[in-house]
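User: I'm new to structure prediction. If I give you an amino acid sequence, what do you actually give back? Let's try with this one:
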Amino acid sequence: MKIDFKKILEAYRIKISPTIEQKDLALKRLEICKGCEFLKGSVEDHLCRCGACGCFIHGKIFTNMGDECPKGKWSEVDKGHFKTKVKNTLI
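Assistant: Good question. You get back a string of structure tokens that encode the predicted 3D arrangement of the chain. For your 91 residues, that looks like this:
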């Protein structure tokens, strides 16, 4: 598994001074993580981790990339925050 240090540092930069929208998205993601079977530890503990990817939850929820949950659980809440390109095909 490749570690993307640039993405990690950007998430923690956002965590330090998030916009209202970034904070709202992070809280929605955290709610999903609270009920996830892959959560290692308690979300009240800021060292809790994702058992699927190994990331610290309280940093990962601030990532500025859409659908970064390795199990796809953030897809619904991320939809309104990230624009995705739709490819038109003949099929």
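You can read the tokens as a compact description of the fold. Here is one thing that stands out. Residues 66 and 78 are 6 Å apart (CA to CA).
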